Automatic annotation (TrEMBL):
It is a peripheral membrane protein. One of its GO terms (cellular component) is chloroplast thylakoid. The keyword Membrane applies. SUPFAM superfamilies: FAD/NAD(P)-binding domain. This is Phytoene dehydrogenase. It catalyses: 2 a plastoquinone + 15-cis-phytoene = 9,9',15-tri-cis-zeta-carotene + 2 a plastoquinol. PANTHER family: 15-CIS-PHYTOENE DESATURASE, CHLOROPLASTIC_CHROMOPLASTIC, PROTOPORPHYRINOGEN OXIDASE. The keyword Plastid applies. It is an enzyme of class 1 (oxidoreductase).
């Protein structure tokens, strides 16, 4: 019995992430490796065909078989959430040009700051985007080493359930930079180190039946009694909609699971991964609202849980096109521009941003798109006791480190 390894192409440099290993019935003593990515990977590796490659066997050695599959972009454009996001962003471009454009300074050039500047420029205003570091992207930043390889801050997945970012890709004309993978979720099994378990969503079934089918077909992580309790426990989330989701904010993931009668092992085996993927927080600390927001989208949208990866580094393949768009409309993007302090007028409103190099930037409006810890450090003293800013004390950043194993 040989091992069949499914490997997902992550970028154009022909690096690959092993996402699943499961036993299949192959020829005795023959190992086959299936690379599930896109044509780009096949071309990058100079494969003669994106379908399969065979090497002549050496004495006593079975030939290597590589299969590359290019999954098409799912039909997202007709979904209600995508259409809503597309209409909202189109209002910026369609709005009458302002007689006096606003000069808006934005602190932080992560995706939030970049998107803010992009849509302000679309509306005819003049954004100035300030980034403290020499690289754009914030949490999706990446750096190239001396060998030309990219180091990223984390594994970045673009779900079908993200209508705003999917719409942004379309507006920039870079939809082809997303490499879609097969519709499955693959989990490492904590109680079986080195083994993985799949939840496969059939293409022929609509939501939420495809998600229920994926749960029922999985026999590695969940027993039948656990699956039944899990499915019954999820019914309120499926039927209750957004109002039900918002009402669960006071319960942690662990508390909600127990309230619904879902076994603790489901939380440990499945939802610890979801909790850490969404907010880097354990299930006993994370609000169930966060999980239900994601689950509700995955269960209500056929392609909501389908995943795509960028075909290269985020700064080059995603951030750079946004910057080009901003600059084409008269906006500015400045790196190495760290804010030293927020200077105030006598009435407590913002007068200017003072940078570390001593320069002063004044504007008509100011936006912070930075991590909460940075805003806390820069908050003026006479703002800290205001009820609005007082709430920042309850917001705590989560330190995270990522390790990529290729």
């Amino acid at each position: 019995m040989a091992q069949w390894a499914c490997v997902s192409a992550a970028n154009l440099s022909c690096q690959a992430t092993i996402v699943n290993t499961q036993k299949q019935r192959n020829s005795p003593g023959c190992d086959a490796f299936s690379f599930k990515g896109s044509e780009f990977m096949a071309q990058s590796c100079r494969f003669s065909s994106p379908q399969a490659v065979y090497r002549r066997p050496r004495n006593g050695v079975c030939p290597l078989k590589v299969v590359c599959v290019d999954y098409p972009r799912p039909d997202l454009d007709s979904t209600a959430n995508f259409l809503e996001a597309a209409y909202f962003s189109s209002t910026f471009r369609a709005s009458p040009r302002p007689t006096k454009p606003l000069k808006v300074v934005i602190a932080g050039a992560g995706l939030a700051g970049l998107a803010t500047a992009k849509y302000l420029a679309d509306a005819g205003h003049q954004p100035i985007l300030l980034e403290a570091r020499d690289v754009l992207g914030g949490k999706v930043a990446a750096w190239k080493d001396s060998d030309g390889d990219w180091y990223e801050t984390g594994l970045h997945i673009f779900f079908g359930a993200y209508p705003n970012i999917q719409n942004l890709f379309g507006e920039l004309g870079i939809n082809d930079r997303l490499q879609w993978k097969e519709h499955s979720m693959i989990f490492a099994m904590p109680n079986k180190p080195g083994e993985f378990s799949r939840f496969d969503f059939p293409e022929v079934l609509p939501a939420p039946i495809n998600g229920i089918w994926a749960i029922l077909k999985n026999n590695e992580m969940l027993t039948w009694p656990e699956k039944i309790k899990f499915a019954i426990g999820l019914l309120p989330a499926i039927l209750g909609g957004q109002a039900y989701v918002e009402a669960q904010d006071g319960l942690s993931v662990k508390d909600w699971m127990r309230k619904q009668g879902i076994p603790d092992r489901v939380t440990t085996e499945v939802f610890i991964a979801m909790s850490k993927a969404l907010n880097f927080i354990n299930p006993d600390e994370l609000s169930m609202q966060c999980i239900l927001i994601a689950l509700n989208r995955f269960l209500q949208e056929k392609h909501g849980s389908k995943m795509a990866f960028l075909d290269g580094s985020p700064p080059e393949r995603l951030c750079a096109p946004i910057v080009d768009h901003i600059q084409s409309l008269g906006g500015e993007v400045r790196t190495n521009s760290r804010i030293q302090k927020i200077d105030l007028n006598n009435d407590g409103t913002v007068k200017s941003f003072v940078l570390n190099n001593g320069s002063v930037i004044e504007a008509d409006a100011y936006v912070f798109a930075t991590p909460v810890d940075i805003l806390k450090l820069l908050l003026p003293e006479n703002w800290k006791e205001m009820p609005y800013f007082k709430k920042l004390e309850k917001l705590v950043g989560v330190p995270v480190i990522n390790v990529h194993i290729w």
